[in-house]
Design brief:
The chain is an all-alpha fold and 137 residues long. It is 68% helix and 0% strand.
């Protein structure tokens, strides 16, 4: 078996990926082994007061609070197929910080199954559990 793709587009894509990896190693060797899946660990949890100030009712007193906005964001990320793993973990972490309970997080993800499908819901639930377990440690 060979690693050379038969599809010309796949071959061009593989070549582009290899060139990009070499360029990254040249420009910043520290990024050569960077894993995007762990990106959420680089971002600190924003305090609840700041979340409310920037995402909550600070500028719109009659609007949604930060917790509700974050739960809606979590739903949107789930409906998109739960592909943005780091963003889901980060959003769960911030929703909990803003006052959401584990049950509210689970319900927000569960409702998204109607629009994004059960596989997306299952993946988001798994990511949310990982994020919550990380908070509790």
């Amino acid at each position: 078996m060979t690693d050379t793709p038969e599809n010309p587009f796949a071959a061009m894509f593989a070549q582009t990926q290899a060139m990009t990896q070499e360029w990254v190693k040249t420009v910043n060797p520290a990024l050569a082994n960077f894993n995007v899946a762990g990106m959420d660990k680089l971002w600190p949890t924003v305090p609840a007061e700041m979340l409310e100030a920037f995402l909550g009712k600070q500028f719109n007193p009659e609007g949604l609070d930060a917790k509700t906005r974050l739960l809606l964001t979590l739903q949107g990320l789930t409906i998109q197929g739960a592909l943005a793993e780091a963003q889901i973990r980060l959003t769960v972490r911030h929703a909990i910080e803003a006052g959401a309970t584990k049950q509210e997080v689970a319900e927000a993800i569960g409702l998204a199954a109607m629009f994004g499908g059960v596989p997306a819901m299952n993946k988001a639930m798994e990511l949310a559990k990982d994020a919550i377990d990380g908070i509790e440690e």
